[in-house]
Amino acid sequence: MKIASWNVNGIRAVSKKGFESWMETTAPEIVCVQEIKARPDQLDESTLHPMSYHSYWAPAKK
């Protein structure tokens, strides 16, 4: 089983720089993404639910 954990320091910037392509190339079964710096309502559908992955979000409140 391949598990990836990535501190992205901003999911919106990472999604513009090839996050989905990295997911396709790496093909982890589980992906843990920290420091997203966004709420789910601020993200597009492809970032919220990449490819066929199930997503669970726990954003922090300021």
What report would you give on this structure?
The protein is 29% helix and 16% strand. By secondary structure, it is an alpha+beta fold. It has one domain (3-48).
Question: Keywords, please?
Answer:
single chain; alpha+beta
Could you estimate the helical fraction of the residues in percent? 25-40%
Uncertain runs: none
Alpha carbon gap, first and last residue: 35 Å
Count the E strands.
2
Q: What is the count of DSSP helices, taking H or I runs of 4+ residues?
A: 3
Shape: globular
Order of SSEs: EHHEH
Could you tell me the strand content as a percent range? 15-25%
Rg estimate, integer Å: 11 Å
Content-based structural category: alpha+beta
Instruction: Please summarize the sheet with the most strands.
Output: 2 strands, parallel
Give the integer mean of the pLDDT values.
90
**Total domains:** 1
Q: Give the strand order, joined by hyphens, for the main sheet.
A: 1-2
Q: What's the short story on this structure?
A:
The protein is of the alpha+beta class and about 60 residues long.
Which helices and strands, and how do they pair?
Layout lengths: L2 E5 L3 H6 L2 H8 L3 E5 L10 H4 L14
Parallel strand pairs: 1-2
